[in-house]
Write a structure and sequence with these properties.
The termini are far apart. The longest helix is centred in the C-terminal third of the chain and has 11 residues, at 41-51. The chain is built from one helix and three strands. A three-stranded antiparallel beta sheet has the order 2-1-3, with helices on one face. It has one helix at 41-51; strands at residues 16-19, 36-38, 57-60.
Length: 67
């Protein structure tokens, strides 16, 4: 039974994807997948800066451009 206190999640509402970019330190050999998605660009940047201060990138999922 679904929790009545949680709103349904619509993936289309989450515009900004955070990538850790392990390739910048030669830690990855495959394409880097998004590790988190956010509605707000500032929240995405804060998350990325705290997790991977020097290598993260935030990408706008709708345009494909770096934020």
């Amino acid at each position: 039974m679904p929790n009545p206190y949680l709103a349904p999640t619509d993936p289309a509402e989450y515009r900004f994807a955070v990538h850790c970019c392990g390739y910048k330190l030669d830690l990855a050999y495959e394409q880097d997948r998004a590790v988190a998605v956010f509605r707000c660009a500032e929240m995405a940047k804060t998350y990325g800066a705290r997790m991977w201060p020097t290598t993260f990138e935030v990408i706008d999922r709708f345009t494909g451009e770096q934020v």
